Amino acid sequence: MGNRGMEELIPLVNRLQDAFSAIGQTCDLDLPQIAVVGGQSSGKSSVLENFVGRDFLPRGSGIVTRRPLILQLISSTSEHAEFLHCKGKKFTDFNDVRQEIKAETDRVTGTNKGISSIPINLRVYSPNVLNLTLIDLPGITKVPVGDQPPDIEYQIRDMIMQFICRENCLILAVTPANMDLANSDALKLAKDVDPQGHRTIGVITKLDLMDKGTDVRDVLENRLLPLRRGYVGVVNRSQKDIEGKKDISAALAAERRFFKSHPAYRHMADCMGTPYLQRLLNQQLTNHIRDTLPALRSRLQGQLLSLHKEAEEYKCLNPDDPSRKTKALMLIQHFGLDFEKRIEGSGDQVDTVELSGGAKINRIFHERFPFELVKMEFDEKELRREISYAIKNIHGIRTGLFTPDMAFEAIVKKQIVKLKGPCLKCVDMVIQELINTVQQCTNKLESFPKLREETERIVTTHIRELESQAKDQVLLSLEIQLSYINTNHEDFIGFAKEFYPLPMFLNPDLSPLTFSLQVIRKGWLTINNISLIKGGAKEYWFMLTAESLSWFKDDEEKEKKYMLPLDNLKVRDIEKGFMSSKHVFAIFNTEQRNVYKDYRHLELACDTQDEVDSWKASLLRAGVYPEKTTVDGEGSAQAESFSMDPQLERQVETIRNLVDSYMSIVYKSIRDLMPKTIMHLVINNVIKKIKPVKLSFFSCKMQRYYIYYPGLPTSSSVFFPIGQVDGEGSAQAESFSMDPQLERQVETIRNLVDSYMSIVYKSIRDLMPKTIMHLVINNVIKKIKPVKLSFFSCKMQRYVLIHIFYLI
């Protein structure tokens, strides 16, 4: 530390941080820094205030630090603070510093506990500090408060990860001593990005609050959960001390006495406490900057040369140069091609790390949307009560002998209306994924921020316009379903069919045995609640069929651990603990029976939420439905106390079965139509919107070149003379013969075409009468009604009578 050059290293990095914060860019430089990580109420704020010797950080319940605070401590003869966003203003009262942090946080995040990754830069000059720079990050939380989004836990985790995942970032992991170290949120996060513990410095707070007779000597001596840079223990002021305005210098003296007098810590008192921690961090950061500076300098010089070269090109650029427009069109062309590939899955480069836009949309169509539909499971008692009331109200004062059709239609229409929510949510999810895909594709335009901004604006605006059209069409589809209840559908149990489908027991391909043995899904899952008791979570290979869920030791499927029948099982979500990076769901028995040995439920964990959704969709196919939340209220009490006479009960049962049958047809139709509607009105339209921009790039000569080279992706019709269609080509087609392998492929595709077209025919047969009823017949009836009513006005009556008189 005697070297003057070494002392200037931390201020040098401070100037770089200020420069990047001022321009809102990082230049992709991984600056050496120290990030402070810890759970709420772990003592982070007290440690930082002890460094400064002043109370200057906001305090309170819930999330207090809601934006990263870059705290630059600079040794100086005078004492004051400066904010980067308040240039030239010196704060000598540290209460004003606290208020300014609150005001600047609220300016960006609002007053309802929202968070933002935009940092606040605070520089503190004091004779009591050593040169040191720390980044104070939001405390880890699990429960949203105020107007915070439900995923606030994951937002905070993502923000923390943005800093600590960088190789040049040292991690100051703050953990209270009265918490089990194995449950430390800070150490868990640090271990995720620094498994060897090379970049992590452990800080143990609240040593004075431990139970009598207990200590953390093994931790501080670096024997339990060792870190390369070790642990430092500190004693902070208690909440009572803070409220009583206890002086920090007095608190530091009390901390010193604590370590000197404690039998477990007195032998290491010189390596404990806040002053030692500040010296250690100063030394560690200085050495870290020194070690990383050569690579940092080399990278910065490379970027500087690249920027100089690009600036020289712009100096020689003529605004009227046609090549400038060509460059812009080429960039737009690449954007369009990239977007199309991400949606349609074409192209040479396939992402093997995560799902791309098109694959995510496919998952929304075929996993998320069906799952949302099933979540609307009927409340059986409520439904039967509604049916009985509908029957009684339709009969009125009369005693009904037959089951009324109108009761069936009223109940069905009410259930169809409930589909509006899941359908619109499906559109919202697809639109959001499209916008995310657009933003990913425009990343390649980051060197041209104005072009990127305008491209995003145009395409996103178009997507939003299509969103409105798609939602209108979805609502129209539901209106069409409501306009005509097609009880003549061949799948409806109330229809006297001419041709009955082949019963399952006569069709060996659809027999219950074959169906039950069909494997729906295989994959790795972690059993959470059982494995933890035995020393840690463990992965097993799971196999789901229509009848059971089995798990094996590994994917060779030789050693089966257990087979769980699916009877009376349901699935529910489990809140993800911050200690775990996995996402959890649970399977349980609706009859309160144990599902495995002495366990009432089975907690299963996946690496991502997408995997959880996919497994829940697979369980749905096997008949394991999501848990339905019950509401205890007046309606439930009425349903329980409601009783029916035998005749009414039979009628209710009849209509209940008819509703089940018809709604299964509606669900099937909606599940089929939703992807097609969104594809037609949104996704295909977005791709068409982008394509004209690409095509406008090609001049006449380029178009001619494009046509004459069949390797390029264009319509195949431009490669064949017109005369070839009815001549030689047809003759070749007639004499065409196939080898056996090709013949089998043709037969397979022919059967698939038959199968799919039967679905299309059935859908069209069902939709045509409903569409005509909604768009034509019902509209005509509405149009005629006012005419009929107007006939009865006085003037109309006189006009008709006079007209009749003259005719006579």
From TrEMBL:
<feature type="domain" description="PH">
    <location>
        <begin position="518"/>
        <end position="624"/>
    </location>
</feature>
<dbReference type="InterPro" id="IPR003130">
    <property type="entry name" value="GED"/>
</dbReference>
<keyword id="KW-0254">Endocytosis</keyword>
<dbReference type="Pfam" id="PF01031">
    <property type="entry name" value="Dynamin_M"/>
</dbReference>
<dbReference type="GO" id="GO:0016185">
    <property type="term" value="P:synaptic vesicle budding from presynaptic endocytic zone membrane"/>
</dbReference>
<keyword id="KW-0493">Microtubule</keyword>
<keyword id="KW-0342">GTP-binding</keyword>
<comment type="similarity">
    <text>Belongs to the TRAFAC class dynamin-like GTPase superfamily. Dynamin/Fzo/YdjA family.</text>
</comment>
<dbReference type="GO" id="GO:0005525">
    <property type="term" value="F:GTP binding"/>
</dbReference>
<dbReference type="InterPro" id="IPR022812">
    <property type="entry name" value="Dynamin"/>
</dbReference>
<dbReference type="GO" id="GO:0005874">
    <property type="term" value="C:microtubule"/>
</dbReference>
<dbReference type="InterPro" id="IPR001849">
    <property type="entry name" value="PH_domain"/>
</dbReference>
<dbReference type="InterPro" id="IPR027417">
    <property type="entry name" value="P-loop_NTPase"/>
</dbReference>
<dbReference type="InterPro" id="IPR020850">
    <property type="entry name" value="GED_dom"/>
</dbReference>
<keyword id="KW-0505">Motor protein</keyword>
<dbReference type="InterPro" id="IPR011993">
    <property type="entry name" value="PH-like_dom_sf"/>
</dbReference>
<dbReference type="InterPro" id="IPR000375">
    <property type="entry name" value="Dynamin_stalk"/>
</dbReference>
<dbReference type="Pfam" id="PF00169">
    <property type="entry name" value="PH"/>
</dbReference>
<dbReference type="GO" id="GO:0005737">
    <property type="term" value="C:cytoplasm"/>
</dbReference>
<keyword id="KW-0547">Nucleotide-binding</keyword>
<dbReference type="GO" id="GO:0003924">
    <property type="term" value="F:GTPase activity"/>
</dbReference>
<keyword id="KW-0378">Hydrolase</keyword>
<feature type="domain" description="Dynamin-type G">
    <location>
        <begin position="28"/>
        <end position="294"/>
    </location>
</feature>
<feature type="domain" description="GED">
    <location>
        <begin position="746"/>
        <end position="808"/>
    </location>
</feature>
<dbReference type="InterPro" id="IPR019762">
    <property type="entry name" value="Dynamin_GTPase_CS"/>
</dbReference>
<dbReference type="InterPro" id="IPR001401">
    <property type="entry name" value="Dynamin_GTPase"/>
</dbReference>
<dbReference type="InterPro" id="IPR045063">
    <property type="entry name" value="Dynamin_N"/>
</dbReference>
<dbReference type="GO" id="GO:0008017">
    <property type="term" value="F:microtubule binding"/>
</dbReference>
<dbReference type="Pfam" id="PF00350">
    <property type="entry name" value="Dynamin_N"/>
</dbReference>
<protein>
    <recommendedName>
        <fullName>dynamin GTPase</fullName>
        <ecNumber>3.6.5.5</ecNumber>
    </recommendedName>
</protein>
<dbReference type="InterPro" id="IPR030381">
    <property type="entry name" value="G_DYNAMIN_dom"/>
</dbReference>
<dbReference type="Pfam" id="PF02212">
    <property type="entry name" value="GED"/>
</dbReference>
<dbReference type="GO" id="GO:0005886">
    <property type="term" value="C:plasma membrane"/>
</dbReference>
<dbReference type="GO" id="GO:0031623">
    <property type="term" value="P:receptor internalization"/>
</dbReference>
<keyword id="KW-0963">Cytoplasm</keyword>
<dbReference type="GO" id="GO:0098793">
    <property type="term" value="C:presynapse"/>
</dbReference>
